[in-house]
From TrEMBL:
GO process annotations (BP): methylation
Keywords noted in UniProt: ATP-binding, Cell membrane, Ion transport, Membrane, Methyltransferase, Nickel, Nickel transport, Nucleotide-binding, Transferase, Translocase, Transport
MF terms in GO: ATP binding; methyltransferase activity
Species assigned in the record: Cryptosporangium japonicum
Record domain ABC transporter: where: 5-254
Protein name: Nickel import system ATP-binding protein NikD
Length: 318
């Protein structure tokens, strides 16, 4: 299966007055065409910063190194694009929206306040020469036609969330990154949104879902990547991951689910201003030993597996 996005050694740091925040560290990740990849991890581990770095949306105090090669997503076939060094203009004209769509984490700030949902959607459909109409797209995300005639400030959080999803889908991007697309939705609408994203993959699209909701990931993901304190610690096929997570952090995260043992992960993640050289989970890890002073890595060729010196699963299941 072809790789739509090949991320290598991606690092994002924020320079603050007297310190540096290490939001993404040496991240390697292949996103394959036609698959739904779920990126999971606790609040503040770097998920949204990763998404923003791929969309050319980082603020000025960000320093980015590494590479993220986007391939095979252009109907006009202008070749691969290196996202990390792409100029802001190129992002605005040919990449953002058209080749990669983003459902942003904060819908309220992403919506233009002076236009109704219908105006925003119709304009996006027109710019991208789509034949679909706004009502059809609204129905896809579970919005009624009347909801489109409201201004963003008249929408509930969940409605605004669905409108931003419809806006991201309007250009029909080959790669969609959805950052917490189900926040504020009731369970039936959560499932509706997830199934919509799943269908995109089943018809050749590629979707990356960033979520806190492991139950959501279990419902739709082909693959799961677990982020901890700016790094990826596990990346495996979803079936194998949910049957038996391999990184002690991933196991603890799954164990915290109400449907499992409902035990919160003990302790706290490290400050991103003072990350250790070795495994960042070691201080919280029941199995930590002297090996953990050395940083464990995923397989750099496949970007899969587990970054741990004492994984719970050493052989792939199934
Ligand atoms: N502009 C910025 N300047 C400094 N630090 C930042 C900036 N933007 C994000 N950060 C920091 O980067 C880290 C990662 O943030 P990010 O938003 O990616 O987390 P997240 O995993 O998406 O969390 P959540 O699940 O809560 O959305 C956090 O410590 C955050 O405070
Ligand atoms: Ni986030």
């Amino acid at each position: 299966m072809s790789t739509v996005l090949r991320i290598r050694d991606l690092t994002v740091r924020f320079r603050l007055r007297d310190t540096i925040v290490q939001a993404v560290s040496g991240l390697d990740l292949d996103v394959r065409r036609g698959e739904l990849l779920a990126i999971v991890g606790e609040s503040g581990c770097g998920k949204s910063v990763l998404a923003h770095s791929l969309m050319g949306l980082l603020p000025k105090n960000a320093q980015v190194t590494g590479s993220a090669l986007l391939r095979d997503t252009d109907p006009a076939d202008t070749g691969p694009v290196e996202l990390i060094s792409a100029a802001p203009r190129r992002f605005a004209r040919g990449i953002r929206g058209r080749r990669i769509g983003l459902v942003p984490q904060s819908p309220a700030t992403a919506l233009t306040p002076v236009r109704t949902g219908r105006k925003l959607l119709e304009e996006t459909l027109r710019v991208h020469r789509r034949t679909t109409d706004a009502d059809t797209l609204a129905a896809d995300v579970g919005l009624a036609p009347a909801d489109l005639d409201r201004y963003p400030f008249e929408l509930s959080g969940g409605m605004a969330q669905r409108l931003t999803t419809a806006l991201a889908l309007a250009p029909d991007p080959p790669l969609l990154i959805a950052d917490e697309p189900t926040t504020g939705l009731d369970r039936p609408l959560v499932d509706h949104t997830l199934d919509l994203l799943r269908r995109r993959c089943d018809t050749g699209g590629t979707v990356v879902v960033i979520t806190h909701d492991l139950t959501a990931a279990e419902r739709v993901a082909d693959r799961v990547a677990v982020m901890y304190a700016s790094r990826l610690v596990e990346h495996r096929p979803a079936d194998a991951f949910f049957a038996s997570p391999s990184h002690p952090y991933a196991a603890a995260l799954l164990d915290a689910l109400p449907t499992r043992s409902f035990n919160p992960v003990p302790g706290h993640p490290p400050m991103l201003t003072a990350l250790p050289d070795g495994c960042a989970f070691a201080p919280r890890c029941p199995a930590a030993n002297s090996d953990c002073a050395r940083r464990p890595d995923l397989d750099p060729d496949t970007t899969e597996g587990v970054a741990c010196h004492h994984p719970l699963v050493t052989e792939e299941v199934g």
